[in-house]
Amino acid sequence: MPSTALSGTRVLDLSRILAAPLATQLLADLGAEVVKVERPGTGDDSRTYGPPFAPGTDTAAFYLSCNRNKRSVTVNHATAEGQELIRALAARSDVLVENFRAGTLAKYGLDHESLREANPRLVYLSVTGFGQTGPYAQRPGYDGIFQAMSGMMSVSGHPEEPMKVGVSMVDILTGLYAATAVLAALRHRDATGEGQFIDLSLLDCGLASLSHFAMNYLVSGEVPERRGNGGYGGIPSQAFMCSDRPLFLVAGNDKQFSAFCAAADRTDLLQDPRFATTSARISHRTEILPVLQDILRTRTRDEWLAVLDRHDVPAGPYNEMPEVFADPQIRHREMLTEAGGLPLLANPIRFSATPVEGYAPPPALGEHTAEVLRELAGVTEDQLSRLRARGVV
Fold first, then answer.
1. In its keyword annotation, does this UniProt entry include Transferase (predicted)?
2. What residue ranges define each of the domains in the chain, with the CATH number in brackets?
3. What is the distance in angstroms between the CA of the first residue and the CA of the last residue of the chain?
4. pLDDT at 238
5. Which of 57, 131, 152, 220 could form a disulfide with 147 if both were Cys (CB 3.0 to 4.6 A apart)?
6. In Å, what is the CA distance from 367 to each residue of 146, 273, 276?
7. Exactly one of 44, 171, 265, 302 is catalytic; which is it?
8. 204 part of the active site
9. Model pLDDT, residue 87
């Protein structure tokens, strides 16, 4: 079963694709009851974002990644009857999450101002590309666009070529910001009795994620360089090629660099004033990195990892996916789990009192329509039959 930390909290999830569904999945993992409302017949767009698809189904792995522990209800919000059903569900929910373009749900009376009349305690989260206000508020957008616009691409990649992060990083970070915002709003609601509206923008979240890169620029006025697999901290902090395969090595302070020199039998480097301190190594980056690369090419990756571990120097292998899931630490932490025979990435949060102890598989389209509408909206079997016949559910 999911954690019991958010037991008794109901989330009405009108979102699709990735950022907002990740947020509601996280809330579901933490014990919230999440009711996912999808379009009859087609559902969340991401159900078709394959291949790959789950074996024997037409449900994409993309959808499976962010919709476990939810119940799926199909309701056509473009119909008057569908709008009434969603209002009924919202009236009995603690949180509503949606990611329609700014202003869209107001056309159907499903915006925050409309729903708060019936449920003033409702926490209403709207996730959009550019936010509810500003000159871009009505623009559509996807993760790669926000990586480009936020500056994330400007600090990623090699000097000659900016690159996006391989995964949909702005979506993922926005999902985490979204879940955090909901939890804070629930805390405020429980203290005051008042719900509130949360306006979350993917562009804003992409920029916020630049963190110290953005702060370095704001303080110095210097545009950050792209350094490929190199970092901005102490030297070394990057990938190096060994005699067979690469590893990632970080010696972020003088103690760790000294330990690396001992591991490499190159304590002479500590006598060179260009390399003796962290600030000196940063200033002489272009001189020391070729020296370190030549050293690391003298042994295999696994030989280096063993000797560096003995000397307490932070380092790790470059892993392809098969190696990731075979890693003994990953296996020990049980980061690979399953639900209904479906392999899943586990939630990484480890609670002592309210652990996440299991998962329900992502729902089939409309799998729970009847039970949810009976339970939360008081719909009878005859009414359900009529609603189905008219394409409302």
1. yes
2. 10-209+334-389 (3.40.50.10540), 237-241+246-317 (3.30.1540.10)
3. 28
4. 94
5. 152
6. 34, 68, 64
7. 171
8. no
9. 98
